[in-house]
């Protein structure tokens, strides 16, 4: 657990609080599934962990959909990166 003073310093320095981080981690898969795309590199890394973690409670259908969205993002990201 993060000491209260440390958490206060993080928030006062503009860093997100622990509750905000946990909320982001929990909400991202549903948001990505709803919009059918990964918007940010942060979303990318969260989805990467979600689809590789077989112990989470995500359904197989949602896992497959997230894998497809993840692969699409990687493909498009690599094309953009190679075009520069």
How would you portray this structure in words?
There is one protein chain. With 84 residues, the chain is mainly α. It has four helices and no strands. The chain has helices at residues 4-12, 18-35, 41-52, 60-83.
Task: Give a concise summary.
By secondary structure, the chain is mainly α. The chain is built from 4 helices and no strands.
- Count of domains: 1
* Low-pLDDT sequence parts: none
Helix-and-strand structural type: mainly alpha
The number of helical runs is 4
Q: Describe the biggest sheet? A: none
Average predicted local confidence, pLDDT = 84
Shape: flat
Question: Secondary structure elements and their pairing?
Answer:
Elements: H1 4-12, H2 18-35, H3 41-52, H4 60-83
Helix pairs in contact: 2-3, 3-4
């Amino acid at each position: 657990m993060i000491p209260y003073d440390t958490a206060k310093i993080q928030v006062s320095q503009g860093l997100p609080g622990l509750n905000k981080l946990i909320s982001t981690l929990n909400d991202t898969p549903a948001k990505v599934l709803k919009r059918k795309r990964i918007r940010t590199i942060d979303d990318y890394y969260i989805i990467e962990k979600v689809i590789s973690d077989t112990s989470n409670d995500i359904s197989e259908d949602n896992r497959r959909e997230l894998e497809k969205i993840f692969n699409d993002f990687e493909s498009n990201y690599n094309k953009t990166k190679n075009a520069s």
